[in-house]
Every structure is written in structure tokens, then in C-alpha cells.
Write a structure and sequence with these properties.
single chain, alpha+beta, six-stranded mixed sheet, globular, eight-stranded antiparallel sheet, 26 strands
Length: about 375
């Protein structure tokens, strides 16, 4: 990364938290470092990692989350930590922690957003309107994403937002976000970023609708669990759709045979998390009685990504960095197809850094099986302040 770059990125594969923190600091620290964003494997001892990052970046705010895999400057990684340093000369950043997600209402959201805006306004490098975006990181197993995101989106107004749900290396046990010097469960982090640099918040997926439909005829909305599809046991009916026995259903199958709900002309994936002992299916997104799920088929993933990156470069110029949340189910598909190395080369060439998530967030919506993020241009437009 160039010496004067507005964003710097680094990766450490050290298992020792203090060695990892030191390696990241050596790559990212400079006198104008204003904020550090990181994504790490859940294999780290998290309390020790918090201490290490606090020591390595003394006086610099740090936020991040655990992952289901990392997107490093060299492509896909696992078991390490990737970090991004934001230069205060190019970015004014404000960060807030949200705890007790189940009780997050519009009043709390408005107070939080007002506080972020006031903080950013004091140090703003450009007018807040049109020059700011928000990043959200949520506990990926909290089951509160829809409520929190819709509420936040209402409070943010026209400020674009994106984000991802924290992972835990596909164990589906404990996911964490980091802010205020430590890791938190059942929590979220909201980061507001103001910049003169051009940027674009985007989302994409490579899935196309098939003709088959499944109607949710019995659901446990609170637990995101579907008990019946088409008035039949959910796992059995889904297995029939994909032509496999129930015993063969796993995350790789769910990645290859997703289901989606249609809103307007767009389809939004409702990814399956697991098969339960009672024959029901648990989902990563909200499900309820009566929704119609469309069977989807994958189109070429890498072709879709290449087209997206080409469009971003055409509109913004070569990006300084793309910060991305890439659903872990997409990575499973790439692994099954033997395309991880090709995907890594494409991500590295396109300057992508981020993490594999348990769900993505885009303009207040909780979505699955997407590649969602923000592309940040390398230099301001000629007519910008």
C-alpha cells in the first residue's frame, strides 16, 4: 500500500494475539491514522486480542467483528486477522456500540444516529449529506437483524448503509462484535464515515430464479424456523426439491440450492442455516407464515463479480479499497467448485478487504448469499470541496 494512501490494509496470521497486533500496527500505524477496522477469526482468545489491539493502536479507535473467513489483500484467508487503517486527513469517523438488541427501538436509534452525526459534523471533511455512509456489524446469531436494521435505516434517512453479520468459522455457536476496547455478544457496532473521496455502496448476487415455488405453511417466526413447506415437513419438501435425502442436506447443499423471496422485481435470498431434529429448517433471515419462496439457481459467480468491479471502476476510477461483506455460503460454493484461487486473484486485483459473513446488510435490509460493500475512490472528484 502506497505511503500516502488514504486507506491501508494489512493481514496477520499469527496465532498469538500480541504478535498479530504488533504486525498489524507495523503496517498501519502512521501519524495521521484516525481509525482501525478489523475482521478476525473466532479462534483467537478474544479478551487477549482486545488487549493486544488496544496496546498496538494506543489512542486510535478500533472496531471490528469475528468472521467465517477473512478477505485479505491477497484474497481469501482463514484463521487470521485483517485490518484497515483510515487516514484522518481523508476520513472523519464516528463509532457507536448498540447493546440489548432486542430492545432497540426508533427512539434509541435516533439518539444514536444524532450522536454519530454530531460527532462527525465537528470533524467533517465534506458536507455530511452526500459524503457519508454507515457500516453496521451485528452479532450474526442474535436473530435481531431485521428489527435493528429497519430501525437504524429510518434514523439514518438518506445516508447509505451496508454491513455484515459476524461469524464464528462456521460453528454457529458464538459470534462477536468489537468496540470500546472489548468484544461483545448480542450487540452491534455502527460506524459513520464522512469523506471527500467518491464512494459507492453496492450489493450483488449471482442467483437466478427457477420456476419452482415453496409456500411457508407453518413457521416459528421468533426462532426463524420453518416447520412446513407446501403443508409438508419442511426438510422433506426441500430435500425433494433438490433431489437429495434429508440426511445429505448441509451448508454446501444450501449454498448450491438457495431459496429467495421476491420483492418487486428483485429476489432476496433467505438462506437456510441447518436441518433440525424435528425436520424443520432454521434460516438466517426472518421467515413467517404465508411467504412464497422461489427456488434459485447459481449463475457464474466470478463473472458476476468481474462485471460489478468493472462498473465500479468505470464510475469511481480505480478504487483505493473495496470493503466487503461476502456471505460464507458463496465461499462454500467456490470451494465446492474449486474456484477459490481464481476468486482470490480477482479479489486481490480489485483491492477487496473484508470478511465472510453470516448475512449481509444493505440500506436497512438483512440479506443472504450476497457480496455487499462500499467501493472508495482513490481521489476526490474535481468539483468536490
Amino acid at each position: 500500500m502506497a505511503e500516502g494512501a488514504p486507506l491501508r490494509s494489512a493481514v496477520s496470521r499469527h496465532g498469538d494475539p500480541h504478535a498479530a497486533g504488533q504486525e498489524l500496527a507495523e503496517a498501519l500505524c502512521h501519524p495521521e491514522l484516525g481509525f482501525v477496522l478489523f475482521f478476525c477469526s473466532a479462534e483467537y482468545p478474544l479478551a487477549a486480542l482486545s488487549e493486544a489491539l488496544d496496546a498496538a493502536f494506543a489512542g486510535v479507535p478500533v472496531a471490528g467483528c469475528t468472521t467465517a473467513g477473512e478477505l485479505t489483500p491477497a484474497g481469501y484467508g482463514r484463521g487470521g486477522i485483517v485490518a484497515i487503517g483510515l487516514d484522518r486527513r481523508h476520513f472523519a469517523v464516528s463509532c457507536a456500540l448498540v447493546e440489548n438488541l432486542a430492545d432497540f427501538d426508533l427512539m434509541r436509534a435516533q439518539r444514536l444516529v444524532d450522536g454519530l452525526l454530531d460527532d462527525c459534523r465537528d470533524r467533517a471533511l465534506a458536507p455530511l449529506a452526500g459524503h457519508s455512509f454507515a457500516l453496521t456489524l451485528l452479532d450474526g446469531l442474535s436473530s435481531c437483524e431485521e428489527q435493528v436494521l429497519a430501525t437504524l435505516d429510518a434514523a439514518l434517512g438518506r445516508i447509505p448503509s451496508f454491513g455484515g453479520s459476524a461469524g464464528d468459522d462456521n460453528r454457529l455457536a458464538h459470534t462477536h462484535v468489537h468496540a470500546e476496547g472489548r468484544f461483545h455478544g448480542q450487540a452491534a457496532v455502527v460506524v459513520l464515515i464522512n469523506t471527500r473521496l467518491p464512494f459507492e455502496v453496492f450489493t450483488t448476487h449471482h442467483l437466478r430464479p427457477r420456476t419452482e415455488k415453496l409456500v411457508v405453511t407453518r413457521a416459528d417466526r421468533e426462532r426463524r424456523r420453518v416447520l412446513e413447506l407446501n403443508a409438508l415437513p419442511a426438510a422433506e419438501e426441500y430435500a425433494r426439491l433438490v433431489g437429495l435425502p434429508v440426511a445429505a442436506l448441509d451448508a454446501a447443499v444450501f449454498a448450491r440450492h438457495p431459496l429467495a423471496v421476491r420483492l418487486g422485481e428483485a429476489h432476496y435470498v433467505r438462506a437456510i442455516q441447518r436441518v433440525n431434529d424435528d425436520g424443520s429448517l432454521s434460516f438466517y433471515c426472518a421467515v413467517e407464515n404465508g411467504i412464497v419462496l422461489t427456488a434459485m439457481r447459481p449463475a457464474p459467480l466470478l463473472e458476476d463479480l468481474e462485471a460489478v468491479f468493472a462498473g465500479l471502476a468505470e464510475r469511481l476510477g480505480e478504487p483505493a479499497l473495496i470493503i466487503a461483506c461476502d456471505c460464507f455460503l458463496r465461499r462454500l460454493e467456490l470451494e465446492a467448485r474449486g474456484q477459490v484461487d481464481a476468486a482470490s486473484r480477482l479479489l486481490a486485483r480489485s483491492r477487496v478487504v473484508g470478511f465472510n459473513s453470516y448475512g449481509e446488510q444493505h440500506h436497512g435490509m438483512h440479506i443472504n448469499q450476497t457480496f455487499t460493500g462500499v467501493a472508495i475512490g482513490a481521489r476526490p472528484a474535481a468539483d468536490d470541496p
